[in-house]
Specification:
By secondary structure, the protein is of the alpha+beta class. A 3-stranded mixed beta sheet has the order 2-1-3, covered by helices on one side. 47% of the residues lie in helices and 19% in strands.
Length: 113
C-alpha cells in the first residue's frame, strides 16, 4: 500500500495575513515570497500554510482557521507554535524592510554620485 497521506480536512491550516500598505505594488509578490520562504516550517504533512497580502494596513497576524479538536496539552503546544510563528513572521518582515531600506539607500547614493 502507498504512504498514508493526511486529508486536507484533517490538516491544520495556518493563514499568515501580511499588511502591504507601505510596499510598492510591483514589490508585493517578491515581498510575500520572501516572507513565505522565511516562514516555511520543516516538512510537516499535517500543516498547510497560506500567505495573504492585505492592502491598506501594515499589520500582521497569524490565524489557525480550522483548529483540530485536541486535548489541552496539544492545544497549548499549538498555541505556542502559533506564537513562535507570529514572532518569526514579524522578524522576517523586519529583515525584509531593513534590506529594502539598504537597497533604497544604495540607489539614492548611486543617483547622487
Amino acid at each position: 500500500m502507498g504512504e498514508f497521506k493526511t486529508k486536507i480536512k484533517d490538516k491544520i491550516i495556518i493563514v499568515h495575513y501580511i499588511g502591504v500598505k507601505n510596499i510598492c505594488d510591483a514589490d508585493v509578490f517578491d515581498y510575500i515570497n520572501e516572507v513565505a520562504n522565511a516562514m516555511q516550517m520543516q516538512e510537516d504533512d499535517s500543516v498547510v500554510q497560506y500567505f495573504v497580502p492585505l492592502s491598506g494596513t501594515s499589520d500582521v497576524r497569524i490565524e489557525c482557521i480550522n483548529p483540530v479538536l485536541v486535548g489541552e496539552e496539544k492545544y497549548e503546544e499549538a498555541t505556542r507554535k502559533l506564537n513562535e510563528l507570529e514572532a518569526k513572521l514579524k522578524q522576517a518582515i523586519k529583515d525584509f524592510n531593513s534590506k529594502q531600506k539598504d537597497k533604497d539607500h544604495l540607489q539614492a547614493e548611486i543617483l547622487t554620485s
